[in-house]
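User: Hi! I'm working on a homework problem where we have to compare a predicted structure to a textbook description. Could you give me the structure for the chain below?
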Amino acid sequence: MKKVLFFFISLSVGTGLLVWIIRSIGWEEIELAFRSFSPAAGAIILFLTILANLVRSYRWKTILKSQGYNIPLLRALEYYLSGNAISFFVPMVIFGGEIFRGYDLKEKYAMPWSKSIASVVIDRISEFTIYTIATILGMVFFIANANLPSYKIGITIFSVFILIIALVCFFYFKSFKKESVVHFFFKKFNAQNSDSAETAIEVEKEIFQYFKPKKKTMWQGFGLSFLTELILLTRTFLLILFLGKSVGVFSAVSIGAFSSLALILPIPAALGSHDIVQSFVFTALGLGSAAGAAFVLVIRGAELIAALIGLFFFFKFGIQFLRSFLLKKIGKLFDH
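Assistant: Happy to help. Predicted structure tokens:
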């Protein structure tokens, strides 16, 4: 009940922010920003969005294969899109999409829970590592070249990403030394003997097993993450051109980094939050707040289509699971 209430509260907040930013900019100005945008441009942006998800799905497939499970690519894509749909529509359910992907693997392929959950965590870490590197470059450029209203804003932005870098470095330091982070935290809270602690430690072992400098699959995962980042950077760069603006590569990296930052807030479809962030970024880069709002509307539209496709697969898997569950129950009744 609390999560449902939180969903409607966050949706209301996001809608309120969206209405406020549109009124602040003016709908007429946003419409003008779309004057050079065409249906063909929209199709290209949608294609790149689907392509990025296809590469992500292939990366996840390689992770699963390294664990001894060869899942067909199209099936991995279906799971990936269905998990992303959960994250898109209900981001307040922390790791909801990842848990769904892990659970479905466990049910369909008899994959141990520790391996299935570890695979989606490894997948996120691989992407987050490359994203962090790209973000550092983008943030350095943004702070150095953007017309910020206050130097304090630049310091705040830089501090946030220094913290992210520190966390990433801490993970890899522990991973390469094979020192358990999970055990440390469970010990702190006197929960090391619980069932969840045992599962978490097993998941961590699987993660450490994957992230080894001499392991080919780890570098393959990083390579596919880098390819995903290039596709999303291309999408950002082309979309800005389609909106009649011109930017350099590092400006496009900065804009992409802020898009990811806006998605941290638990608001469905990043309503309002993404619009405000990009209006600020586009203004600071001299591109205009209206272009920032138009940029977000196009990206949200493409992501929405991908999420709706994922939602179809989500309900498809849900119905299959429900049918299987009911048949098992009926079978047990007849056995009795």
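For your comparison, note the following. DSSP finds 13 helices and no strands in the chain. The chain has one domain: 42-335. Good luck with the assignment!
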